[in-house]
Specification:
The complex is a heterodimer of chains A (about 190) and B (about 140).
Chain A: H1 2-24, H2 28-48, H3 52-74, H4 89-105, H5 124-134, H6 140-148, H7 150-171, H8 174-191
Chain B: H1 2-27, H2 31-53, H3 74-105, H4 110-127
Helix pairs in contact in B: 1-2, 2-3
Classes of the chains: A mainly alpha (about 190), B mainly alpha (about 140).
Chain lengths: ~190, ~140
């Protein structure tokens, strides 16, 4: 049992080192690669924490599609990050204070993996018991996602659709600007 | 002592990761870095949730009749599956906003952009135009 937790602690420490490297780096391509690596290590963590479905999704969507999006956007953006003029002292201090408060609060959290923790008492046992009879598929995550909490998934689809529409609306703005620029030229030709 | 430290070690590191993400969002002036910070923050919150759902000696929540096994809590897994997909949607939206800002201002540094806005504002005052801070 302790070995599982040791592997977890090791992986999460790797993630911390990747995040610190992210603060240090100023080159955009390194930033993108480090973000991808971060997602991949997170997927490994999800496997050791028994969340196989989440691990698949994180590896394909978090480490795959996100990276593709970042690379595609990177092609149009400056390749170097400039050193900021203003001081980073106040943001850093506020983050450290907030992190200290969170760590102080963590002593009240239940230890990892305790069966008696409140989260395992509420509704999850009913899902685990009822899944086979109610839905009839062995994967409990799928039955909760698609049936017990189907409306959540429906809302998620709406969010993704809205985001897609917003992205299209934002990126299509280029064309009217070009038309406006080209219109005066045509008028000049007509006058001539 | 060691086992109790390991028992909450994950939480500590996850909180540190959250704070690093928050720092990238509020401390760095590069918009791409801010979006990367959001991604880091999101992934660390996912880790926190999945850590809550873990049971010692449990198996992944896929029904297995041959062994009388303990299943880890499936509910956080479902919530996080939803959150990952929504996270990618927000990343795409943020990146398209950054691209749009880059075509308008030719820069994605917050200092540059606010300086350009300030110059426009003073130009408007000098030429006697209406002086509201407009977006070009």
């Amino acid at each position: 049992m302790i070995s599982e937790l040791l592997i977890n602690a090791f992986l999460v420490t790797i993630m911390l080192s990747i995040a610190i490297a992210l603060i240090k780096t100023r080159t955009v391509i390194f930033t993108v690669i480090l973000t991808s690596a971060y997602s991949l290590v997170a997927a490994l963590m999800f496997i050791t924490l028994d969340a196989v479905d989440v691990a698949f999704t994180e590896a394909s969507v978090g480490a795959g599609i996100s990276t593709i999006l970042f690379l595609a956007a990177m092609a149009y953006l400056p390749k170097k990050e400039e050193e900021s003029i203003s001081s980073e002292f106040v943001p850093a201090l506020s983050c450290i204070i907030l992190g200290g408060i969170l760590i102080w609060c963590s002593f009240d959290l239940p230890e990892i993996g305790q069966l008696t923790a409140p989260i395992h008492q509420h509704i999850a046992p009913e899902y685990i018991k009822g899944s086979k009879e109610d839905i009839g598929i062995p994967n409990i995550v799928t039955s909760v996602l698609a049936s017990y909490r189907g409306y959540d998934t429906f809302g998620e689809t709406i969010v993704v659709f809205t985001a897609g529409v917003a992205v299209l609306a934002l990126l299509q703005k280029k064309n009217p600007a070009k038309k406006n620029k080209s219109q005066p030229k045509q008028k000049i030709r007509k006058n001539a | 002592m060691i086992s109790s430290t390991i028992g909450i070690w994950n939480y500590w590191i996850v909180f540190c990761l959250m704070m690093i993400g928050l720092f990238l969002v509020i401390g760095r002036k590069n918009f791409l870095k801010k979006i990367v910070g959001l991604t880091i923050f999101q992934t660390s919150v996912f880790l926190l949730y999945i850590t809550f759902g873990k049971i010692k000696g449990g198996t992944p929540p896929i029904l297995n009749e041959s062994i009388d096994s303990i299943y880890s809590n499936p509910l956080p897994h479902v919530l996080i599956l939803t959150a990952i997909v929504v996270g990618v949607a927000t990343t795409a939206l943020g990146l398209s906003l950054v691209l749009r800002i880059n075509t308008e201002y030719g820069s994605i540094e917050e200092d540059d952009i606010s300086a350009q806005d300030l110059v426009d504002y003073h130009d408007d005052i000098e030429t006697g135009k209406s002086v509201d801070l407009k977006f070009k």
